[in-house]
Design brief:
CATH architecture of the largest domain in chain A: 3-Layer(aba) Sandwich
CATH class of the largest domain in chain A: Alpha Beta
Oligomer: homohexamer
Order of helices and strands of chain A: EHEEHEHEHEHEHEHEHEHH
Radius of gyration of chain A: 18 Å
Largest sheet of chain A: 4 strands, parallel
Shape of chain A: globular
Largest interface: A-B, 52 and 52 residues
Helix content of chain A: 40-55%
Number of helices of chain A: 10
Strand content of chain A: 15-25%
Chain lengths: 251, 251, 251, 251, 251, 251
């Protein structure tokens, strides 16, 4: 199968890293391509960032119809997730939801460890949207921005293990979810340090995409994720125009 | 005070109508301007529509900094609400949340009556995000698209009153919230038909904007709605670039 | 419009102060009258206090029918709120609920800072009744009784800012709600100290009353707040007798 | 032990009936006295009724300190419950909460069948306050007022069994709670008709009062139900004045 | 009446102690028998322990049909509770649920103090199953195993009072629930130390069993606790075979 | 990898069918073995059934340590799930939770369609335990027992499609979860009939087991699923005795 992993931000180094992680997680028969959109912020750390990234992420999905068997949205805010499901007929998986679902199979309670404190309200909403409040022991933040993760990897590792340890010792977490796609490469190292499962959403999403595809199940078009209504768009990416006028193509 | 009401879709007739409703609700000292973004879908009835509209709505807010005392986002999905709060220092109010808050003052339980059934999951999420599950008796939909509201206004009125009546008689609603900015003009007529409060979000948002401004309270910049982090944007509206590089301007 | 602000306790100095705050918040065209009931406790800090205050507050509302366009119940326990809505046809607003609704427009999470620890369970119930659990970061108490607020205003200010600061730094609050009508005068000063919105319920309620009145919406009489059933009362305030026998007047 | 059962309304016939039911439920060593307050409405069917009844009920409890081992508040709205716990040192039990707790031991889900539809929002709040939402299958109402229950007992029985049957067949209820003290005498008859447990709150409360007393546990004075703060009362029942000035008595 | 108290673990000393506590709580007319099952773990401190204990506990109930008026399951995980209700026609009460229901009558919030930290997730689920999240202030654990409770009773008392005190001072608890049947004998001593109600589930369950029996109410057979479907069992206790083939007996 | 699928009931025909379904879902490199326990009921349709099946299922897992890379518990009540996680070091997946997690990736709301109405309360608890209340549109039952599914497969198909259709049309479901392992073979046929995703838990669990194994994540041993405490067992399966005395083996 072919999975398109989309890094919704526009930092090539991070896209490369996500690609590496996704490939490592993929099964032999799975092809991974990883892209970043044509526009948007260099990193995603807030609501305005997400609005911009969502727009361009949707463009990527709409513009690649028919080429992939599944999409992975590799930002731990799951931007544009529901919208991408509308414009596609194959599964679209967000890395945050992916990590929630996988964690539920190995831990009664888990914590997210992420970047800047300002992402905490966004993550709380995401946990609530997925109904995971009772299984989320805590959301802990480091003071790092997304792009600082790579600047001093030893500092990042130290901070991540410190917060992960506190999540386990003080908050009741039994597993740690890495709250940013850029943290993915730390998963196995942290797992060893903490003696508890550490889950990267990119890897989880790849496995879930394989699972859905292998089982032959895709996005329901009954209600929440129906194709968009046919309508005129003004000054929007041409990829979307194609999607919205789809019925015209039938004439 | 000056309020900018933004119709996030790109249908001028609807923008005009929203302007009329907002002006009617405004107090004597309140100036209302109403605009629609430069781009986006003609109507908003799903998640992809919202992603596109959110992008352009954010552009409107970012591009008008310093000119208004408050913003109203006049689409009953509250698109880009959190993001607009980040890029502005004055209150930004969504019409759905506005109607929830006002309804809570006059009814123990209320129902939303809206357009196409496909918006129901979006509205459920909005109700949940605002913590209003226990006060929301039901979400009822007509088969109308947003742009069909105006096509046959007698049909629209009939359908709206029918669903509103059922919400009261069968679901336990004590007030009706109009689940689309385009339904605003029906509020007083429906209120008379139903013998129960009927709330239009645009009117509610104007009154709440006046209230916040009158009391001298604006968006908290402590966490969820902090200004965006300074960062580079790729291929984004120039208005946003200004916002994101704001510190540079101080140099 | 004319708003009757009711201080449900029987301390004249506090009634005067509430009047001052309410007047300051009112728009030019709004007349504010402020009263306290004929009976009840000098301050309200528990359930028994509330039962006594509720009885006399209801008497005030029932005894002033037709004279006001809205009522504000100026005690942060919202005593007799639902009952007053039953005996009146104009909006009745509690200051706790008012602060919840206004805070939701400017902050994702807020905290209440109040008096004696014993009020905490009452405030928790109030938060739950309004469905605000997910937006309430914490309820913090000072050791002050209601009447001690004024005794040493510098001490009060110090304690309030300390708890407000902790709510922001430790609990994730982005705005502070003043959990007692007597704390209202501190709002702007605290807002400046904390760099975050500080909301006084009296001011919020006045603005919401203006909003409802301006928009022409009042209490629903469909279910929860229906007029009382006609029935005989024994040894109750004469004002209520009038309300309960209202149908007789039609004969 | 001695239990004072308080019928919070002022209809002697109903007080007599409650007495009969409570006595039938009491164990051999339990003395039951049943009273109604000096004032208040003839029946309790709404929020204003409750405010009036609460005031007079509190007077009964405050005025009988030291004479009883437990109190039962025999109105299915549990009026003044928390307040009475403050002014007493022995257990005070509401009949609604009593029925919830007992029902939880014999059924996974139960329904309340009560009087007029207007009580439904009050009962919903009561269910929520006690955390029983997941176990409450439904709240069903007959069109009867409280005082009509006795007017035509055959009609009442027919309506109650009809609604109880629907609760079981349509809503998933496995037990029925009688949502008004006046319905108590129907419990065993309905239980036989429905083939499912039918619980009267008065009987449940008597058994729970016996249980608490037998086990030697009474109301916690740590926080929510602390004795009232010492303070001056204006124009309140003399019984309360005694309670509030209690420390003075120690001088 | 006759109550069979079942200690689901297989430690005779603990069975004896539970018997002593249950007898002390019983009313004059109540006969208490206490047994332990033929098999299962010596103590119950986790999910596997519970599965084993549940099996043998069910055997005890199924094998004693017709001999008792109620059963008490004396392990604070309420093992096999729903299953035992299916195979019996008399009330079956778990000691955890019993303590929740009784505590709700004397405290707004309570905490559980229990054994090893590993039981915390089990207790959280139990609290949630009973809808008690809002009334549960905290679950606190000592480092003690079940069988260590008795090893050094002074150490146990010290640890229990320490955690109980913290629950009151830091978590907002107003009453303490003893989270293990083996802790029962400490109830009155701890109550005196803490100045707050301390509830042992065994005592609570005995009083509730007496209450249900006295009122003539037993387990509903409408849905959740219906008798098992008639079916063949393989290699199961002979007591169950009798229950499952019950219809055959009617032939 | 090697997965042991356990049919917790003792009907060989059903074990065979589950094996067929699991094999069909497995990836090329996955070996599937399917067993049923030595004892327990012929089918699982209630709480007593579950207690018996749980005991024997635990025996299977404890008795096969070191032989498999993952376990699937193929009964839609997830019996013994937490217990099996304690006694194993590899992932253990229940088919109900598996279907919840997979469904969340393709539908906003889903419904379960299952056997006899008596399983509804069990399934409600399972949905709640997994935090899925907001995504579960409804639980619908047919009148079929587990063993009747196969008796008249055309009747079963008709009933399942009827209930699935109602779940979509009346309850807002966008996907259907098959609420019994015996219904698995219907998944693709029903999916075609309904035009919406239909998920069989056995297939979902196999894919999730592959995903966890492929990603190298297994059950956390930090708290909820720690190995059992070392202790003596009385009259329990010898397999468990081995697990419980594990430390002794280290000597």
């Amino acid at each position: 199968m072919r999975i398109l992993v989309i890094n919704p931000n526009t930092t090539q180094a991070m896209t490369d890293e996500i690609h590496h992680v996704a490939k490592a997680a993929a099964s032999p028969g799975t092809e991974i391509e990883t892209v970043q959109p044509k526009g948007g912020p260099r990193s995603i750390e807030g609501n305005a960032d997400e609005v911009l990234a969502a727009y361009h992420t949707l463009d990527v999905v709409a513009g690649s119809k028919g080429k992939y068997d599944a999409y992975v949205i590799a930002c731990y805010g799951d931007p544009a997730l529901a919208a991408c499901r509308e414009v596609s007929s194959v599964p679209v998986i967000g890395i945050a939801e992916a990590s929630f679902h996988m964690a539920g199979l190995v831990a009664y309670k888990w914590s997210i460890v992420s970047v800047l404190p300002r992402v905490k309200p966004l993550l709380e909403e995401l946990v609530a949207r997925n109904g995971m409040e009772k299984h989320c022991a805590s959301i802990r933040c480091t003071p790092l921005t997304v792009l600082e993760i790579e600047e001093d990897i030893e500092r990042t590792k130290r901070m991540m293990v410190d917060e992960g340890r506190k999540a386990i010792d003080e908050d009741g977490a039994e597993a740690i979810l890495l709250g940013c796609a850029g943290l993915g490469p730390l998963d196995k190292w942290m797992q060893q340090q903490l003696g508890a499962p550490v889950l990267d959403g990119v890897a989880c999403a790849v496995k879930l995409a394989e699972g859905l595809h292998g089982y032959g199940v895709t996005t329901s078009k009954v209600a929440a994720y129906k194709d968009p209504e046919r309508k005129e768009l003004v000054a929007c990416p041409v990829s979307l125009a194609g999607v919205y006028q789809r019925e015209a193509a039938h004439v």
